[in-house]
Amino acid sequence: MAELGRPSYTVDMQRKRGFTFVEIIVVIAIIAILASLAGVYIYRRRSESKLARVTAELNILASAMAQYATDNNYQYPGDVSRGIPPGLETYLAADTWPISVWPHGVFDYDNWTHPGPGSNTGKQIYQMSYRLCDISDPIGYCSDSVLFPNFTRYSSIFYCISGPCLPHHDYPTDPGYCVNCTPKKQNY
């Protein structure tokens, strides 16, 4: 018999107080789905931020290159393999020297003749490029799974100074991303 003032509990009422195993699993699954969606969003925003930084760096380098050419009878320096031409640093402020954004990324100045085929064969190309990896890095370092999943060792984000610019002269069909081409920000 129940005491006065105290409710009597049955076995069924005591079971309803806690959560079932299935309810806990459902809550954990929902939390995991929400966390993965947040992770994808954050990773995308980080990749977009890196692209914005590289675009700004390429704009600065292209301006410095234009100043260099003006001071040198409108002649551009020779091609540099995965680097910036010597002498360009004098046209850059000390705090604007290009900073690599992707962990293995390198800036690259390109000055070469269009390899063809087509109407652009033999035309001179001048561009500032940013490659997500160095030539000797493993291929896994050369792409960004969100923005540039198909990039290869020869792909680049590039600023076209003059000519029919390409991601890479030896591999003209590899994917690339031009920051100042028309249409704007075209993926090749």
* Strand order in the sheet with the most strands: 1-2-3-4-5
Order of helix and strand elements from N to C terminus = HHEEEEE
Structural class determined from secondary elements: alpha+beta
Q: Strand tally, please?
A: 5
Rg computed from alpha carbons, rounded to a whole number of angstroms: 28 Å
The backbone outline, from C-alpha atoms, is elongated
Report the β-strand fraction as a percent range.
5-15%
What count of structural domains? Answer: 1
Helix content: 25-40%
Query: Helix segment count?
Result: 2
Weakly predicted, low-confidence segments: none
Please explain how this structure is put together.
- The chain has one domain (52-187).
- 30% of the residues lie in helices and 15% in strands.
- The protein has helices spanning 11-15, 21-71; strands at 106-113, 124-131, 156-162, 176-178, 186-187.
- A 5-stranded mixed beta sheet has the order 1-2-3-4-5, covered by helices on one side.
- Strand 4 and strand 5 form a beta hairpin.
- The longest helix is centred in the first third of the chain and has 51 residues, at 21-71.
- It starts with 10 loop residues before the first helix and ends with a strand.
- The mean pLDDT is 84.
Give a quick precis of the structure.
The chain contains 2 helices and 5 strands; from the N terminus they run H-H-E-E-E-E-E. It is an alpha+beta fold.
Q: What is the fold's blueprint, element by element?
A:
Layout (H helix, E strand, L loop, with lengths): L10 H5 L5 H51 L34 E8 L10 E8 L24 E7 L13 E3 L7 E2 L1
Parallel strand pairs: 3-4
Antiparallel strand pairs: 1-2, 2-3, 4-5
